[in-house]
Amino acid sequence: MEQVTTLTYWSRATNPMGDDELLDLLRISRRNNARRGITGLLLYRDQYFLQVLEGPEREIESSIKTIEADPRHHSFRTLCREAGERKFGTWQMGFENLNSVTDQVENSTIMKLQFDPDYFGATPTTAQILVLCFRGIANPAVLASVTL
Ligand SMILES: Cc1cc2nc3c(=O)[nH]c(=O)nc-3n(C[C@H](O)[C@H](O)[C@H](O)COP(=O)(O)O)c2cc1C
């Protein structure tokens, strides 16, 4: 099984991001990530980003330097860094704008957690679990059954 480096961070958007800006960012990210063998997930909510990047260590290192220096966000904080299997398979960068989730998802256990940097900072592994759970965002029943 391929071993990859997985890095999870949160950051704060410098300005609220509109759909067009988010789409631009995703388009570039997916193109670059495909080239670098990077997969992952980007969540956006209340001006916070939570991103998981996984791929060859060297690629993650250079990509994260670029991302961290991006003026569209600040207060970058690494939550988790680990080696392991690739979990996001073919997702060059999955994305969910959590400001516009359905009521059903909104009422699930996972959404009742605070989306707050101090919380994530204190319990980094929760961020990982949370992100993995959001992979099933199309299936609220799966989310509702998750207890952290
Ligand atoms: C929250 C956030 C997440 C980003 N994620 C990625 C990413 O996964 N991959 C990527 O290549 N660029 C990502 N970027 C964009 C980079 O900072 C940078 O603008 C981009 O890689 C430049 O690409 P280019 O040199 O091809 O123009 C992200 C930026 C922000 C603000």
Protein model, in words:
The protein has 148 residues and is an alpha+beta fold. It has a single domain (3-144), classed as Alpha-Beta Plaits, CATH 3.30.70.100. The chain contains seven helices and five strands. It has helices spanning 19-36, 57-68, 103-106, 109-112, 117-122, 124-134, 140-144, and strands at 3-13, 39-45, 48-55, 73-85, 94-97. A five-stranded mixed sheet has the order 4-1-3-2-5, sandwiched between helices. Strand 2 (39-45) and strand 3 form a beta hairpin. The longest helix is centred in the first third of the chain and has 18 residues, at 19-36. The model is unreliable at 136-143 (pLDDT under 50). The structure holds flavin mononucleotide.
Gist?
The protein is of the alpha+beta class. Helix content is 41%, strand content 29%. It has a five-stranded mixed sheet, sandwiched between helices.
Strand order of the largest sheet: 4-1-3-2-5
Radius of gyration: 15 Å
- The oligomeric state is single chain
Q: Number of folding domains?
A: 1
Spans where pLDDT lies below 50 across 5 or more residues: 136-143
CATH class label: Alpha Beta
Arithmetic mean of pLDDT = 78
State the order of secondary-structure elements, H for helix, E for strand: EHEEHEEHHHHH
Shape: globular
Amino- and carboxy-terminal Cα gap:
28 Å
Considering DSSP H and I runs of 4 or more, what fraction of the residues is helical? 40-55%
Beta content? 25-35%
Strand runs, count: 5
Bound molecules: flavin mononucleotide
The helix-and-strand class reads alpha+beta
CATH topology: Alpha-Beta Plaits
- CATH architecture descriptor name: 2-Layer Sandwich
Count of helical stretches: 7
Please summarize the sheet with the most strands.
5 strands, mixed
